[in-house]
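User: Let's play a game. I give you a shape written as tokens, and you guess the letters that built it. Ready? Here's round one.
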């Protein structure tokens, strides 16, 4: 305790301030390192989500286009236009299959990273609609092929 009495008041005041300064410096360095990690994670997530969003938008537009073609097929009056719509519908079916394969491929590439719940819900609704319409489309296509073969 004698050594404490021998230290000047100036040093006694400056010592806690210096310690506080060192702690603040270490905290700021730590926060900068963490912010860089967060930035890198954000870039990865945004790139991944943008690919998923783009794929979901393509799937949605294909489904909408397929619905329009189905309506046109049902509304067509001659066999040439019906065949044209049928060909387009088959192409859309194939492209939807490729979109689902592409999504599964992206999912495997992501590994165990989770995608946002909104995108999962959107994909599930697209798959639900796809699975609901697929049997009807296939049935309609078989009927068209039977009529053409007659």
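Assistant: Ready! My guess for every position:
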């Amino acid at each position: 305790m004698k050594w404490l009495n021998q230290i000047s008041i100036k040093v006694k005041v400056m010592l806690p301030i210096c310690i506080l300064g060192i702690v603040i410096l270490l905290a700021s360095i730590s926060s900068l390192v963490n912010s860089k990690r967060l930035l890198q994670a954000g870039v990865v997530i945004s790139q991944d989500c943008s690919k998923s969003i783009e794929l979901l938008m393509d799937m949605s537009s294909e489904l909408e286009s397929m619905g329009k073609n189905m309506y046109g097929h049902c509304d067509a009056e001659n066999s040439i236009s019906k065949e044209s719509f049928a060909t387009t519908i088959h192409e859309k079916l194939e492209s939807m299959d490729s979109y689902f394969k592409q999504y599964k491929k992206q999912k495997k590439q992501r590994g165990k990273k989770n995608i946002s719940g909104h995108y999962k819900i959107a994909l599930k609704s697209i798959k639900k609609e796809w699975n609901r319409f697929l049997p009807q489309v296939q049935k309609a296509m078989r009927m068209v092929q039977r009529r053409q073969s007659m």
